[in-house]
Amino acid sequence: MHTMMPEHQPIAIAPDQIPFVREMAQITRSMWRFGWDERNGGNVSCILEEQEVARYIDVNQVIRRFQPAFPVHELAGRYFIVTGSGKYFKNIIDDPEGNLGVLRVSYDGEHLELLWGLKNGAVPTSELPAHFMSHIERLKVDPQHRVVMHNHATHTLAMTFVHTLEENAFTRTLWEMCTECIVVFPDGIGVIPWMVPGSSEIGRATALKMKEHRAVLWPQHGIFGTGATIDEAFGLIETIEKAAQIYMKIAHLPIRQRITSQQLTDLAQAFGVTPRPGILDMQTDTQQTK
Ligand code: 2HA
Ligand code: ZN
In which residues is Zn(2+) bound (predicted)? Predict the structure, then answer.
């Protein structure tokens, strides 16, 4: 991780043309358009490789230092692009440098070093503890892991009012809503109790679930999705949100046919995924009530 100084000067390029900045600006714009990130809702952090950053940004020029909520030795020397605290996803595309930041966790893990962006005294997302703790846990189970994404996906949030929060039952219902679900998230969805956002406690509870799931639900608030790429984390949330949308459309109607346990088993087999144990043999919400 701790590598040499880059040999080349970073290439001169408009900030919104830096590939990892563009990708963040575009994905946050999509989330806002979906209505998942009202006002300053939502936050994203993405691990970057040093060479990738050094191509565009002087990694030896620390602009500012921040004190993280806790030392992050596990992430020492890692580079991140993150959304800023209080920033509106709507605005990122027009002012990436004001709304996003590129940071390095110092080599001793005690500080955050701002290398680019977060202009005018902006600071990283208020959910940084949850992001860092989730990155640490996901990296332990998947070395390819890079992205943590949080938003207020509308139907997913709505579903946490009317469906049991028992996570296996919640997962089973989602799997039943669209044929692709069990293939996209065979590891199911983790659910934590309602908690105050922005705290280290909610970060710890989220990260604990991240040991076994790539997606974690915050009841009456939103969702965390993770993945090896922005597309993957976004696609995971998108798929869960689609299933939740179907649920909210049909749960109150008489169900005439459904995806059966056998069909879910067949799907898993056909696509070579292993469904989280203990879910396929359970009854679900839509089955119980009709
Ligand atoms: O950044 O979504 O959970 C605002 C939030 C906090
Ligand atoms: Zn939120």
Answer: 150, 152, 221
CA distances from 202 to 159, 193, 208, 249, 284 (A): 20, 9, 10, 30, 28
Work out which ligand 1 atom sits closest to the CA atom of 85.
1
Instruction: Give yes or no: residues 283 and 180 share one domain.
Output: yes
Per-residue pLDDT tens for 25-73? 999 999 999 999 999 999 999 999 999 999 999 999 999 999 999 999 9
| C-beta of residue 284 within 8 angstroms of C-beta of residue 172 | yes
Backbone phi, then psi, for 253, in 5-degree steps?
-105, 155
pTM summary value: 0.95
Q: Which domain holds residue 71?
A: 15-125
* In the predicted structure, residue 288 carries a pLDDT above the cut 60: no
Residues with Cβ–ion distance below 5 A, ligand 2: 222
Name the residue at shortest CA distance from atom 4 of ligand 1.
41
Check which CATH number belongs to the domain holding 285 and give it: 3.40.225.10
The sign one gets for the Cα dihedral 201, 205, 208, 210 is negative
Considering the domain architecture, whether residues 166 and 263 belong to the same structural domain is answered as yes
* Residue 127 a catalytic site member: yes
Between the CA of 199 and the centroid of ligand 2 the distance, in Å, is 12
| Residue 42, pLDDT score | 98
CA of 41 to the centre of ligand 1 (A): 5
Count of the separate structural domains present in the chain: 2
Domain presence at residue 136: no
Is 113 in the same domain as 181? no
Same domain, 168 and 255: yes
Catalytic residue among 7, 97, 127, 212: 127
Query: How confident is the model over 244-259, as pLDDT tens digits?
Result: 999 999 999 999 999 9
| 163 in a known ligand binding site | no
